[in-house]
Amino acid sequence: MEKPHKKLDVWKLAIELVLDVYGVIKTFPMEEKYNLTDQLRRAVVGIPSNIAEGAARNTKKEFANFLYIAQGSLSELDTQLEIAFKLGYIKSNDFENLELKMDRIGKMISGLIKALKQSTIPL
């Protein structure tokens, strides 16, 4: 069975972001294991997961709705990473790299939503 989400550059980049975030949170203090670390995992995994679920839907409207959810997860992740950075759990260069990747993903999701609304891409 063909998996349409695997053709999307935004999905591929979101998978990279998952790996990056998982790498960074390995260094978090143990007391965050069931708190901030879990929230970060859920938020970052939600991004490519919602992109994939939307791509598997039958209508552009449904796809766009899942992309909006992915954007929400991206915003949630951004906030959680900001907190972790301010708590000193993330190095400055790692935080900057994550921010750049999140910005790029956000722009790609917005562009895809716009294209879906303008019906310029096939489903």
Number of domains: 1
Report Rg.
15 Å
* Gross CATH architecture: Up-down Bundle
What percentage of the residues does DSSP assign to strands (E)? under 5%
Query: Which stretches are low in confidence, meaning pLDDT under 50 for 5 or more residues running?
Result: none
- How much helicity do the residues have? over 70%
CATH topology: de novo design (two linked rop proteins)
Average pLDDT over all residues: 95
Write the H/E string, N to C.
Answer: HHHH
Structural class: mainly alpha
Number of helices: 4
Main sheet overview: none
- Name the CATH homologous superfamily: 23S rRNA-intervening sequence
CATH class: Mainly Alpha
Distance between the termini: 16 Å
Q: Based on CA inertia axes, which overall geometry fits?
A: elongated
| Strands, total number | 0
User: What is the subunit arrangement here?
Assistant: single chain
What features would you describe in this structure?
The protein has 123 residues and is mainly α. It is 73% helix and 0% strand. The chain has a single domain, classed as de novo design (two linked rop proteins), CATH 1.20.1440. It has four helices and no strands. Helix 1 packs antiparallel against helix 2 (36-55), helix 1 (9-25) packs antiparallel against helix 4 and helix 3 runs antiparallel to helix 4. The longest helix is centred in the middle third of the chain and has 27 residues, at 60-86. The protein starts with 8 loop residues before the first helix and ends in a 6-residue tail after the last helix. 28% of the residues are buried.
